[in-house]
Automatic annotation (TrEMBL), chains A, B:
The lineage of its organism: Bacteria, Bacillati, Bacillota, Bacilli, Bacillales. Its cofactor is Mg(2+). This is Farnesyl diphosphate synthase. Belongs to the FPP/GGPP synthase family. Keywords: Isoprene biosynthesis, Magnesium, Metal-binding, Transferase. It comes from Oceanobacillus limi. The keyword Magnesium applies.
């Protein structure tokens, strides 16, 4: 990874973590609820979604505090989805990134409610941001609810569950990933550009870009589950295989999956060209998504 | 109950149920998710919250389709909270209103996701309503997220859980109810009036009214658990006692609880007088809340 990209990622990550902490600490809510919300928010992660949102914004607008509320809201929604995903009734995971999952650290009821609270609070944050116009708030909330709701992320989670323990086609697999992980990435890219006043044509190009970026992210996730370093990725290598999960390497072979990923990288960069702006950071982030080792 | 009030309740209930069905049926989402969302939405209930919202609106504005999206969003959020509340990790209920609870009809994972979907979709509905201005959308979404989030309903649920199996004071009990059930009633009353262009002073009076209305609702719930007709209320009479739940009759005796309720009715109506409008329907609804037998 280039030094400049590493610096960029680290500085944005710090900024986001500071702002998330400030926003949730300011809540006057029952202490146990706040503790549980903060526990999962502070449990690490690369903050890729809010970073993408900021990078997309900066492609069109100059650096600004205007993106913070949307970036925080996005990370809160991502975090709630992980908490609910880890529940015994869902993936039943006891650890995430080497730390106890929320329901193991607290209890199931608290984890369910902490997730509900994070989801609801994300809309409150955007609706209360004094830096946004009413029109901008509505545009962001519309996108956020669409991307994370029944026709977006939650829909993808239902499809993912239904696909467990059976063979799915590559088309089905891509539909699941498009909804389950792609929609939040789409929100990151398009809402950043929207706040930066990108034109409809530019937004269209970026939406296409975000589609391929989501697929790159997922193929690399599947590849890392085969050839990744267990220490680095923070979960058992080979768990997809033992969970009988449908993956790209399983459907296409490892080489086939790697080729497919490069095909997506090319398509993502082609879409970026149509975005008609200095896309160097988004391009560097695409390579980072494709080559990441954890 | 007066015939005119009964007619009002029935006609509004039908309208709301028709609009909810239309809104959720229009979703293009995985069939199982839609089925699970609709199952709980159609599982009955008196639709009191959206009816209150409409009645509050009509106190200031004339009947209009403008309130529909907020009314639907409110009922969706109420329904999601019931689905999550019934989960094994929470109240562990197998039946609600004589029908299987969502996780018993489907499974726990589906119930969790159906709740998440209803919550998220409620914000999408408001943000997409062509009858509202951007300012109105933002005002409604702000109120809705505040009343239903960590500082509102979800906060109340955490406090309620923490209060289980221990004695709580009357102050604690009222705080729990204020958050757990009162906040959504506050949303109903204040957002209806807001859309009807009530003045800040009128809104203040109605917010005070909604506080007492929430308490009336809760005291009557507790009273019905002691002297209610099991058939009518659709749950086992005496379940609070056997669940060691803190209730008004337990803290004040049955007579004391009934007196307390009348005190709240008087305070609610006193607040209504300050609302400076024709509050006859809100006043009739207050009596209905106080005297309902199921």
């Amino acid at each position: 990874m280039k030094e400049s990209l590493r610096d960029y990622l680290v500085s944005k990550q710090k900024l986001i973590e500071k702002e998330i902490n400030k926003s949730v600490q300011s809540l006057r809510v029952p202490p146990k609820l706040k503790e549980s919300m903060l526990y999962s928010l502070e449990a690490g992660g690369k903050r890729l979604r809010p970073i993408l949102l900021m990078a997309s914004y900066e492609t069109y607008g100059k650096e600004s505090a205007k993106v913070i509320s949307s970036a925080i809201a996005l990370e809160l929604i991502h975090t709630y989805s992980l908490i609910h995903d880890d529940l015994p009734a869902m993936d039943d995971d006891s650890y995430r990134r080497g730390k106890l999952t929320n329901h193991k650290m607290f209890d199931e009821a608290t984890a369910i409610l902490a997730g509900d609270a994070l989801l609801t609070y994300s809309f409150e944050i955007v609706s209360n941001d004094p830096l946004l116009s009413d029109k901008e708030k509505v545009d962001i909330i519309k996108k956020l609810s669409e991307c994370s709701g029944p026709n977006g992320m939650v829909g993808g989670q239902i499809l993912d569950m239904e696909a467990e323990n059976r063979n799915v086609s590559l088309e089905e697999l891509e539909k699941i990933h498009e909804l389950k992980t792609g929609e939040l990435l789409k929100f990151a890219i398009t809402s950043g550009a929207l706040l930066g006043n990108a034109s409809p044509k530019q937004l269209e190009a970026l939406e296409e870009f975000s589609y391929y970026l989501g697929l790159i992210f997922q193929v690399q996730d599947d590849i890392l589950d085969v050839i990744g370093d267990q220490e680095k990725i923070g979960k058992t290598v080979g768990s997809d295989e033992s969970n009988q999960k449908s993956t790209y390497p399983k459907l296409l072979g490892l080489k086939g999956a790697q080729d497919r990923k490069m095909d997506y990288v090319n398509k993502a960069k082609h879409a970026l060209k149509k975005a008609d702006a200095d896309v160097s950071m988004l391009s560097a982030l695409t390579d980072y998504f494709s080559e990441r080792d954890y």
